[in-house]
Amino acid sequence: MNNVSHNAPADVYAPTIPHLAYVMFQLMFAAITPSLAIAGYADRVKMSAFLIHIVLWTTFIYDVAGHANWSLGSQGTSLGWLAKMGAEDFAGGTVIHITSGFAGLATAMFLGRRIGYGKAPFEPHSIPLIILGGTLLWFGWFGFNPGSAGFAGFLETQAFQNTNIATAVAAIWWMFLSWAHTGKTSAIGAVNGAVAGLVAITPASGFIGTWASIIVGFACATVCFYCVLIKNRARIDDALDTWGVHGMGGVVGALLTGAFSEVRINPYGHNGLFFGNPMQFVINCMGAGFGAAWSFGLTYIIWRIQDAIWPGGVRVTPKEEEIGLDISQVGERAYSGFAE
Fold first, then answer.
1. Domains in the chain: boundaries
2. What is the CATH superfamily name and number for domain 34-112+125-330?
């Protein structure tokens, strides 16, 4: 089941939901995906170049990935090439998180590091706001993971439960990993772990059993934690760990979906590797590989073309970066009542 009910008529993807409501639901996915990628290259891009880039990126990367994984025709027949192969992505692990994560990495590598990166501390603006944001994300995820079932019932409830369990496990395990490496737990680490859990369970939420969601939580927190360490040691200025958490979290989720998928949970899906169907794991690996390669490569090419034709290139000048993009690009202060 690729984000919609397979028994839907040709023009109605979710029979119990008004068509335009479903359109707006899908629009939310299209809007949130490039906003995740932005986090990887904060404070470096001209606003004019960024606005054009988002249109190009959504059209040539997100739309293509979405069609490949989710596109359905009359009576639920698959139109996208990954959907025809049987790739499983319940709510966007490949379409949303792998594409945005690898786009953030490609852009961060293309633009280079922010001025002072690695020399001056780049501390979080507000830990309480980070925790609040993480909490709102956790709550909001209960809308688009279960909502991707397209109807209320057992499948939606299973996706709801899987989402919460994997996220909680990942948040707690990330804190233990942080403690093992630094001797301290971390509030930001707990939020990172929770987001990693949310990301990884996204493609699997409507395909796997409750017990498997626990494994997803442990696995994604471990992989994402060490990917963030690798990124930091490589001195790649991915400002908000978009690649380590979203990109690699999406990869973990896609692979584990192919491992633990059960027809018992979702009759529109397939059994996975551990239920006698190793080909499902292979197909999901192909889907994850396509999402990563397509997004990374094409994102880099788009930036190259834009940089060649944009007056002065797409990156802001050192002076504009020092002033801050709030002032130099938008002309507003986020906190006008406080001294800089």
1. 34-112+125-330
2. Ammonium transporter AmtB like domains (1.10.3430.10)
pLDDT averaged over every residue in the chain: 91
> In this structure, what token pair is assigned to residue 185?
């737990």
Question: What would the two tokens of residue 82 be?
Answer: 């990954």
Residues 6+ away with beta carbon under 8 Å from 174? 189, 190, 192, 193, 194, 196, 221, 224, 225
In angstroms, rounded to a whole number, what is the distance separating the alpha carbons of residues 29 and 97? 10
Which long-range contacts link 55-62 to residues 24+ away (Cβ below 8 Å)?
Answer: 56/302, 56/306, 57/103, 57/299, 57/302, 58/30, 58/33, 58/34, 60/298, 60/302, 61/99, 61/103, 61/294, 61/295, 61/298, 61/299, 62/30, 62/33, 62/34, 62/95, 62/96, 62/99
| Angle at which helices 248-260 and 99-111 cross, to 10° | 150
Q: Model confidence over 216-246: pLDDT tens digits?
A: 999 999 999 999 999 999 999 999 999 999 9
CA distance 276 to 32: 36
pTM above threshold 0.85: yes
Contact 90, 204 (CB under 8 A): yes
What are the CA-CA distances from residue 91 to residues 56, 125, 164, 198 (Å)?
A: 23, 31, 15, 11
Q: How far apart are CA 297 and CA 106, in angstroms?
A: 8
